[in-house]
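Pasting as-is:
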Amino acid sequence: MTDSAPREQDLRIDMPSLLRALLHRAARILFVTAMLMVIAYSLLMFVPRLYESSASLLVGDRTTVFTRSPSETAPQAQGAGADALMSSQIELIRSRDTLMAVIEDLDLRSVPEFTGASASPISLILGLLGRAPEERSLDATVLRNLNDRLTVIRQRDSAVINVYVRSESPVLAADIANAIARTHVERRAGLSLSDTADATAWLEREIAALRTRVSEAETAVANYRIENDLFSGANNTSLLDQQLSEIAAQITAAQERKNTALSRAQLIRGLIQSGQPIDGVPAVRDSVVIQQLSQSKAALQGELAQRSATLLPNHPTVRALFAQIGEIEVQIAEEGRRVAAALEAEARIEETLEASLREDLATAKISASTASQDTVRLAELEREARAQSDLLETYLARYRDAASRTDTGSVVPDVRLVTEAAPSSSPASPRTGMILGAVAFVALAVQIGAVLFGELMSGRALREVRTEFDAESVAIVPAAVGPVDADLPAPIVADGLSPEEANALGAEMTRHWAGLDTGKEGAETISQTLPATTDLEDEGDAGFLEAAAEPEPEPEPALEPTPEPAAAVAAASPVGSPARTNLAHASRNELGNLAADIALGRVRVVVLASLTGAADALEVSRSLVNQTLQRGLSVATIDAASAEASEEAGLTDLTNERASFGDVIHKGANEALGEVPWGRQRAVDRRSMKAATLVEALTDVYEVVLVATGRIGMASTLPLFTGLDCRLVLVIAEDMPDARIEAALDDAASLGFEAAQLVCPPARRARVA
């Protein structure tokens, strides 16, 4: 007898069903959309048309080299200063004074749209509801309405400000925009002129005070000069400095004269002693006696020469002439000695004069040292007087410039009108096309969303995907689940098979296990039966085929068919429902199903919690690690159950802020295995969120993450992993009461784990069909 039971079931969205539902209600959707558009258009017909006009103002310094003072430079506003200037201009344009001037100029108090006399649909509706607008004065009403119709913005990063005004009349909108711009320009001119006038008055007060201070400072300088004899001569030099310079010059001149006289006297004496003529020395040549003697000597020498030509050397006349010449030379030498003596006397006089001058210099130096100390104070007084005088001159120049501008009213404002507003030809609001398009889009979106939501909530757009197997045939699972008993049909799951292919494969395998074909040839037949899309031709599945090809032992009495997996029961049944009966019996094959789900990628994070002890959870973790590594997948394990201190940093060190994430992850014996031990600390910090963060980080590196949390109870570490996208697996004993299992499932549900899968430790698994 065959009994078809659903092995797997899944809910998927039936897109054709959703499209049929939309098509079925298409007429209603279009009708409602059209009605809403008609209603919106009807309402827009009552909304007054507003026309918008804009005027542009250019903000910037308008002074030129002809209007600035010679010492004044052109101001340059950049960065935050420019932004602040533009913001200030915008606020001035929107200020009450500017707008009130426009209201006065254009007489907006008589325009109904600004006084509120024209009733709008909104005001009528509010009046019917008893919420009439608050009563305000006429000026306040006009000002509020003008503010509502006014928009002042700056064009990007430029110095241009646009003034936008909306009105029911295009001409009035242009007039108001131009009036606001002109009023602002005139107001800025008035403000600039007022600022200049204020500056002129302030400068006048400061100049009067500065004049008094300058007079006092110059008087103090003069009095100090008189009190301390600090008079100045030519080139603004003090008399003491001039006296020192003159005495030093006289000393130098006396030294030169003395040295010259001594040198000449020594030269004359040396020439006389050596018998050489002294006529060439300037001091001797300038002597009148020497000049006469030299003339007499010359005359005698001439006569001697004449006589020597006719007389003999011993002639008395010749000898007399020689005697006369010798006497003259003796007189010249004597006269030279007198000249030398006079020069020496002159040198002594100059030396005496030099000594006297040096005494005068010493006295002058003493006076100059005292005067230097007084000069410091004098220089200070002069600097103060000069500073006050310079400031007075500056203020006088600025005062003259400001006074001339104030008197003539020649101040140029820093803003000007560059573009006047023109009447608009098309209304700016309301934008009928855009509004109707938005109404149509929202109406369609809301109606389509409501239809789709209703179909999904009713379940009509959801369909079940079922894969049914013959109860007498075997289910197909990956070889990584574990060894297959040769005497019983082994459970196998091949992903990607249709129900017909799975039933055909199960029937073929049943014939082989019944003894029709138990050799290697049968295994080859099975492998040919599988479609090319299955994954049974890898290394793990080859082990399964080899096990299936081995001789079949004597058959044992068949056990009852295995009920549905506990994970499916726990997920589909609420906590405490009658469907949880015999959960311990249903969990005996779930370890293989769990390994199959891991191998097929249906689950990546597994949290193991035990009802018997931490050793069972760790044993299941090791079994899953072995089977996962056999499938060629990378796996990481976290020991949150053993409570045994390890030599390496682990989970407890991480949660207690004693280690970083990289310090607690260690490589195992296999390159594809990562291990996080318990750690060096005694307990984990249950307030830490790093345990869940560690699991999320490991899922980015490893394909599978296994967390063993130990026995469920007050000391369990299971709450650390609440909120993870994981599968909770409860490790139970085969003979454990259902009440205890249901209590554990209730505890798991209270922590946020909606479903739990029940497994038995590998050592306690029974042989079941």
